[in-house]
Amino acid sequence: MFNLTGYLQRINLSDVSVADVETLSRLQFAHRLAIPFENIDVKLGRPVEIDSDAVYEKLVGRARGGYCFEQNQLFLDALTSIGFTARTLLARVWLGSESTPPKTHSLILVTVEDEQWIADAGFGGSFVPPMRLVDGERVEAPDGARYLLQQPEPSNWVLSRIPANSDGAAGAEGDLQAQYSFDLSEVFQADLVLANHWTSTAPESLFRNQQFVNAVLPQGFVSLVDRKLQETVGPERRTTVIDTRQAYLTVLADRFGISVSADEVEALGLF
Asked: How far apart are the C-alpha atoms of 148 and 132, rounded to whole Å?
């Protein structure tokens, strides 16, 4: 049984009694505001468990963050416990890719009142509100970023971001940049296990080569990439380089709510 009460306390929500679009939007935004995206365990060489019990214990019980396979498993469990009809999809992330990337991102297909929506609580970038699965659908995020969903082929969908986002990952203002592509094929647990294994262990995986911690703000984004802390709110962006292990521990606790040990920070090899 999913402990919905504990999850709602973790994301600072109380009333989610109706499985409608408003609840879906509120739940996803609250999740992104409360639970950071991070790959600390990957960098420490620890196995990343993505079954429901392990994900709940880590992200809710220990108030840690995680990456897409963890975040969206937790989000999926919450959605189905509320009464939504939902299932996992796999996607290829195109941001920063010069060739066809593997399917190493998960998102969720949600059916609400006979309409299909995509929802994603596990992308390590600016917040993307839930979007109807309709060719040409557009949405604007709280930080002003805009997104476009297109269906270039009958079996393929592409989510693109339009202007530069507060996470700094998009192109110049007005550019159309593919974020990820996906199809609606059924995804089995074995598919997720395989994708998670590659993402957490492959030498060429981005998550093995950089340390990420980031979080969505009500109207912006804050990220810690290796020792570089960057916070964007509206048009203002502040960048700081973390100089010491103790300062790194303080930033993790104060800005992201993550508690790790000094030995764990030492093992990250950032200093």
From this structure: 11
Q: What is the distance between the alpha carbons of residues 207 and 210, in angstroms, rounded to a whole number?
A: 6
Owner of token pair 């911690």: 213
State which H helix or E strand residue 23 sits in.
Answer: helix 21-34
CATH architecture of the domain with residue range 4-267: 2-Layer Sandwich (3.30)
Q: Which of 31, 105, 143, 167 is catalytic?
A: 105
Read off the pLDDT of each residue in 165-180 and give the average, rounded to a whole number.
Answer: 76
Note if 120 is an active site residue.
yes
CA 146 to the chain's CA centroid? 17
In the residue annotation, 31 being an active-site residue is answered as: no
147 close to 130: Cβ distance less than 8 angstroms: no
Q: Which of 41, 68, 143, 167 is catalytic?
A: 68
Question: Could you confirm whether 197 is annotated as catalytic?
Answer: no
User: What amino acid is encoded at 76 in this protein?
Assistant: L
Strand, coil or helix: 224: strand
Q: Which of 41, 77, 120, 167 is catalytic?
A: 120
Distance CA 96, CA 117 (A): 26
| Res. 174: pLDDT tops 70 | no
Question: What would the pLDDT profile of 67-86 be if each residue is shown by its tens digit?
Answer: 999 999 999 999 999 999 99
> What are the two backbone dihedrals, phi and then psi, of residue 108, each rounded to the nearest 5 degrees?
-130, 135
**pTM of this prediction?**
0.96
